[in-house]
Amino acid sequence: MSNHLAIATVTAALQELLQPAVSQAVGSAKVGFSRPDSSNQQTPLVNVYLYQVTPNPAYRNADLPTRRSDASLAQRPQTALDLHYLFTFHGNDDQLEPQRLLGAVANTLNSQPLLSKQNIQSAITHNAFLAKSNLADQFERIRFSPTSLTLEEFSKLWSVFFQIEYSLSAAYQASVVLIESDDVPQEAPMVQTRNLYIVPFRWPSIDRVIAQAGADQPIVTGATLLIQGRQLSGDSTLVLMQGTERTPTAVQDAQITIPLPADVRAGVQGLQVVQKKKMGTPEVDHRSFESNVAAFVLRPTITGASAVAAPNPPGGINVTLNISPNIGVGQRAVLVLNNASVTPATAFTSLPKVSDVDAGQVTINIRGVPATYAVRVQIDGAESLPSTVTIP
What is the radius of gyration, based on Cα positions, of the chain? Predict the structure, then answer.
């Protein structure tokens, strides 16, 4: 990279590059770098004038963000520029000196388009004000190429030189000049510990959820669940039920054993196997792989049933059932009664009742024939095993 003297060094080095060829073409000719002027039209001269500087399109987005979020300097800012020069050629027109000088310049920049380190060092040596220039160390060499300007573009360019007569001229571009700031970035602290983890991809999958008592046995309160599938075992394996991660009692790659928590409600429930990876210093669990969600039906259990006459209104019979697990707020309960002691057998189904409290008891009002019934309750569609109740 180069410092702020790079642009001036390119112009001075260009003079060093062109002077031998210009002197050979016209013996007394010189290379200067001043504003175009008509006062020295008869003096053999190649005037090099920097009229425009533009961002280099190739390096425009190469400069990464130079500052961190706390505004500290992460790396030195870099500016990439293209330099646009106007060469004007002066001399005795009768001897075609301007045209001879143009030919010498065009031939030199075509045969030597790259600015050499020798030219740069020579320019620095001959110009004391460039002593601190480090353009020679720039990794990208400066290349000169002709710029094709139309007559209209030349006219507009010369119009900015007030009351200056047109001289034979040519346009060239120098690319690319990389200017780097002198600011010293703050070095990041050394890495003391490294935490790099390579984890093979896993896809835990649940095939089914059954009761430990048997695949054909109902899942009820107090049961133990068997979660069967593939790739279920991880570094740290948990079971997610009703938004809570729970620790199983036994974990194998094809089966997980976990007691059914007491707070799980009756009805259709879902569970998911969550595998965690220990990472960091100190190591803590991080969520890594998750299985599909598998459904199971937790059937309610009737632990007691009674029926008494209801006061008027509404009258009828109040059937009270003690249920495990508790019926939660918003869960729907339906009472089903079957009487098999008469012919033909009769069945009664109550209207649904939505619970407004979290309780282990539900009371449903019915009207029917006095008898002893097999009673069942459906909680959110999950039906209990039958019990008995006598309707007075």
Answer: 46
